[in-house]
Write a structure and sequence with these properties.
alpha+beta, HIT family, subunit A, five-stranded antiparallel beta sheet
Length: 131
């Protein structure tokens, strides 16, 4: 069964996409741990990050770096943290989280529930720095 990320990749369900190329897609997490939290996903459905080939893994992280630099410019933060957890959705994904302190990347804390308009604004701001 296709993951929710495949449905986003195939544009079957909406997402706040900030970047895309032939192999990857990056979109806002709609229940972020911090505003500007982006998910970076390979389009090839692979459950576990370490099952990607070496070239797929390096390509994913090069793409994530590009997106992280855009997030850093668009969202006031000290750094953009990175996490690969992979338990929520059976499709490799990299979390990019704008951080002021280490607590901002705590996935055990209650998730934010931003308004659609706020997500749209942040997505457009990130995209503007990636153009």
């Amino acid at each position: 069964m296709a993951s929710i990320f495949i449905k986003i990749i195939n544009k079957e369900i909406p997402a706040f996409i900030v970047a895309e190329d032939e192999q990857h897609i990056a979109f806002l997490d709609i229940m972020p741990v911090a505003m500007g939290h982006v998910l970076v996903v390979p389009k090839k459905e692979t459950d576990y990050v370490f099952h990607l080939s070496d070239s797929e893994l390096s390509s994913l992280f090069v793409f994530a770096k590009k997106v992280a630099l855009g997030v850093e410019k668009a969202v006031p933060c000290k750094k953009v943290g990175i996490a690969v957890i992979g338990l929520e959705v059976p499709h490799t994904h990299v979390h990019l989280v704008p951080m002021q302190n280490v607590g901002d990347i705590n996935f055990a804390k209650e998730k934010l529930k931003p308004a659609t308009d706020d997500l749209l604004i942040i997505a457009e701001q990130i995209k503007a720095y990636l153009s």
